[in-house]
Recover the amino acids of this structure.
């Protein structure tokens, strides 16, 4: 799951009687790692589980170096938009509008690092999937656009847990602005905090590789 969505080019208009091309050549998106996708905007029925979402706007990637499809579940303003800049309802918003869920909230469970599956629950929270108390934290506006475009939050502490106990890790740069993004495989942290994490897990810095 990523914050901006499109479907791979395996989708073709001939595969669906309800397919409608609504923006030929208008779809374009690129990511920090250099990957990108270009193609058309289209509308069709989107099926997830046993639920069908009608009139769903999606990007059809006709030219891309990304080997999988992405589903946008963040703020609608962070979806890829057409050259005119027009916005469209993404999956959670469209599900709420069609009465399939009562709120655009969702909960994401990534499971264990070695697991091949997890789950996402639209419209609610699975209370079996977390420990302790569920609390609210502030999400901040993008400082450039002064709008809510991503899950930008303040990182104020980090706790390390192991069989031998727990340690509180800190940084002179706290609080740090971070984005909660399930589609990003890397975490970028200040040097002093990264060094503490390496020590916790027994990692060593390899200068020739530029990595721990």
């Amino acid at each position: 799951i990523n914050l901006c969505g499109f479907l791979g080019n395996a989708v073709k208009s001939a595969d669906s009687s309800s397919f409608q091309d609504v923006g030929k050549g208008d779809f374009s998106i690129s990511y920090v790692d250099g990957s990108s996708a270009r193609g058309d905007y289209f509308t069709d029925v989107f099926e997830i589980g046993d639920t069908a979402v009608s009139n769903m706007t999606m990007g059809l990637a006709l030219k891309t170096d990304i080997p999988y499809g992405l589903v946008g579940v963040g703020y609608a303003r962070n979806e890829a938009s057409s050259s005119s800049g027009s916005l469209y309802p993404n999956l959670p918003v469209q599900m709420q509008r069609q009465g399939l869920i009562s709120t655009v909230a969702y909960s994401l469970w990534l499971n264990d690092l070695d697991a091949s599956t997890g789950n996402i629950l639209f419209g609610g929270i699975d209370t079996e999937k977390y420990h302790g108390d569920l609390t609210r934290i502030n999400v901040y506006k993008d400082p450039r656009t002064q709008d809510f475009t991503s899950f930008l939050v303040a990182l104020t502490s980090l706790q390390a847990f192991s069989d031998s106990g727990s340690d509180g890790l800190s940084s002179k740069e706290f609080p740090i602005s971070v984005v909660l993004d399930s589609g990003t495989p890397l975490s970028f942290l200040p040097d002093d905090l990264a060094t503490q994490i390496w020590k916790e897990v027994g990692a060593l810095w390899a200068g020739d590789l530029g990595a721990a």
Notes: The longest helix spans residues 191-201. Residues 32 and 184 are 10 Å apart (CA to CA). The chain has a mean pLDDT of 87.
